[in-house]
């Protein structure tokens, strides 16, 4: 079977708390529905878990998405994002990447949709990636086939490297955000051709090829995110930042839009921009990304300053 964290799903607080106590109080409480990456609460004890359960199940903070919660044992280790594309029979693995889910430097603060990422992540070599990928993807594909599910498309399992080995935290049937921003600049293949091969069940004909360079994405967010934040802040400096990247930098627009009068772009969401740069190594790519971040301005902009620190041994 697939190595996963011990977990249960609940619609009522009392049985949920009983399960929390069986885990020793330390756990992750997750909204079962879509919550833009903000529906995960890491809790140290039963009292903290109860507060999260009341917020989700009683106060309906997440609406219908929070009608059910998933409670998962708390696992410690290095988190890594794996991606693969499937055609119902075969899965092709992408290189590794690592997201930064917490809002503030040092992995502090509330969970977000992702404050930045980089690829490749140095914690697994090619042999280890294939071994872990096969241990997850092969039984998953066999399970789908046994249940008559012909799954074709992107699969994104988030994994954690524990002392007992890798374990799956979640499965997503989509690209990760902001992982995609660091994958696509490195992909040599034509993305449309890969998608067509996935749809047509012929991934055996495809050999994924990746650029050797490293890629780093720093998310610029609205002040207050993932809580309440303002909108309509004028964004300046994007064109200059991209021009200064010498063809190795792209600013991906997310929570932003053109102003109603046809003027400058303004903020319209929590995660506003994904400033993505690439270079011969992680240090070069990160330096270029942060140079660009410092050229872009909007009121109350916030970002993490430690993207890729784990890989570079800065902490």
Spell out the key features of this protein:
alpha+beta; 6-stranded antiparallel sheet; 25% helix; 315 residues; 8 helices
Polypeptide structure, described:
Helix 1 packs antiparallel against helix 2. The mean pLDDT is 92. 25% of the residues lie in helices and 29% in strands. It is α+β, with helices and mostly antiparallel strands.
Short description:
The protein is built from eight helices and 19 strands.
How is the secondary structure organized here?
Layout: E1 7-10, H1 13-22, E2 27-31, E3 40-43, H2 46-58, E4 69-73, E5 78-81, E6 84-87, E7 91-93, E8 98-99, E9 102-104, E10 108-111, E11 116-119, H3 126-146, E12 152-162, E13 165-172, H4 179-183, H5 191-199, E14 214-222, H6 238-243, E15 249-253, E16 256-258, E17 265-267, E18 271-279, H7 282-293, E19 301-302, H8 309-312
Antiparallel strand pairs: 1-4, 2-3, 2-4, 5-12, 6-7, 6-12, 8-11, 9-10, 11-14, 12-13, 14-18, 14-19, 15-18, 16-17
Helix pairs in contact: 1-2
């Amino acid at each position: 079977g697939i190595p996963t964290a011990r977990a249960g799903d609940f619609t009522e607080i009392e049985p949920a708390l009983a399960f929390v106590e069986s885990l020793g109080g330390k756990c992750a409480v997750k909204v079962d529905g879509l919550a833009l990456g903000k529906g995960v609460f890491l809790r140290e004890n039963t009292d903290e878990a109860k507060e999260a359960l009341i917020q989700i199940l009683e106060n309906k903070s997440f609406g219908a998405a929070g009608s059910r919660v998933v409670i998962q044992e708390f696992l410690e280790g290095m988190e890594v994002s794996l991606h693969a594309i499937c055609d119902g029979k075969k899965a092709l693995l992408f290189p590794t990447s690592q997201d930064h889910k917490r809002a503030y430097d040092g992995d502090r603060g509330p969970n977000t949709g992702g404050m930045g990422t980089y690829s490749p992540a140095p914690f697994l070599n090619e042999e280890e990636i294939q071994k872990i990928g096969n241990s997850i993807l092969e039984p998953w594909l066999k399970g789908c086939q046994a249940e008559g599910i012909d799954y074709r498309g992107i699969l994104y399992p988030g994994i954690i490297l524990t002392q007992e080995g890798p374990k799956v935290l979640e499965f997503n049937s989509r690209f990760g955000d902001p992982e995609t921003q660091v994958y696509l600049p490195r992909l040599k293949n034509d993305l449309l051709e890969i998608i067509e091969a996935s749809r047509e069940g012929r991934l055996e004909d495809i050999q994924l090829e990746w650029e050797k360079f490293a890629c780093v994405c720093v998310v610029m967010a609205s002040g207050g995110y993932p809580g309440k934040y303002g909108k309509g802040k004028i964004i300046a400096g994007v064109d200059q930042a991209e021009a200064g990247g010498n063809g190795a930098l792209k600013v991906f627009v997310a929570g932003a839009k053109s102003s109603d009068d046809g003027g400058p772009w303004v903020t319209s969401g929590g995660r506003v921009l994904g400033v993505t740069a690439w270079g011969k190594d992680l240090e070069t790519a990160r330096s270029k990304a942060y140079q660009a971040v410092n050229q872009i301005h909007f009121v109350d902009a916030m970002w993490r300053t430690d993207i890729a620190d784990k890989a570079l041994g800065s902490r």
